[in-house]
Design goal:
Strand order of the largest sheet: 2-3-1-4-5-6
Mean pLDDT: 84
Number of domains: 1
Structural class: alpha+beta
Helix content: 10-25%
Radius of gyration: 17 Å
Shape: globular
Number of helices: 2
Low-confidence stretches: none
């Protein structure tokens, strides 16, 4: 198998349950939108693994995709990103630190090392800060048996 064949798929969601009052909810959603907009467009000179185009956010109301929970979806296809995974995680956590959220889930699917799920949870909700984030990881590998 050549490196060209080593495709990695990364996808997931960042969830934020807004405050009870509509004004604060809108402030949080706009801050999250600004955090996504601060990412580079496409590939940049610093070889950022996250870019604006891989994220999608519904609008602010029930008619445009947000009933109560704000869901920020993301997905990308990479060439063997598992070799740069620590770098990817650092960039993703930097983004999370600049956002309001209650949980984030990242799925990494690789041809060589199986499927991994990474979860971040902030029981009281995370506000933009430099505080360290806690993440747990689950690994699932499908293995075939020769008969």
């Amino acid at each position: 198998m050549s490196n060209f064949d080593q495709e990695s798929i990364v996808y997931g969601v960042i969830r934020h349950i807004p405050a009870a009052d509509p004004f604060t909810a809108r402030v949080h959603r706009r801050a999250n939108w600004s955090a996504i907009q601060s990412l580079p467009l496409g590939v940049d000179d610093e070889w950022s693994l996250l870019c604006r185009e891989m994220f999608s956010m519904p609008g602010d109301d029930v008619f445009s995709g947000t009933y109560q929970t704000q869901l920020i979806h993301f997905a990308a296809s990479y060439k063997a990103v598992e070799y740069e995974w620590e770098h990817w995680l650092r960039q993703f956590e930097t983004l999370l630190k600049s956002m309001y959220w209650v949980s984030a889930t990242v799925h990494l699917e690789t041809e060589l090392s199986g499927k991994h799920t990474f979860n971040w949870n902030a029981e009281q909700g995370h506000c933009p800060s430099d505080a360290d984030l806690r993440m747990n990881c689950e690994w699932e590998r499908e293995a075939g048996f020769a008969i």
